[in-house]
Amino acid sequence: MDTPADDTRIDLLTALVGLDLPDACRPGVRANLALLDHYAALVMDFPLPPEIEPAPEYRP
C-alpha cells in the first residue's frame, strides 16, 4: 500500500536530481526503493567488531 511518506520521499528524490517522473512509474520506483532499503539494512546491520579497520585501498 502506498503511504504519504513514500510519495514525499519520491518527490524529494526526483526534485533533487531534476527528474520529471510520470505517475505511471511511481509504483516501480516505490518497489525499487523498498528493495534498496532492505539491502541497505542488511549492510548497516551487519555486526563488525570495534577493532576492525577499513582497508587501506579498494581492490574490486
TrEMBL record:
A Pfam family per the record: AtzG-like
InterPro entries with a match to the protein in the record: AtzG-like
Protein name listed in UniProt: DUF4089 domain-containing protein
Phylogenetic classification of the source organism: Bacteria, Pseudomonadati, Pseudomonadota, Alphaproteobacteria, Sphingomonadales
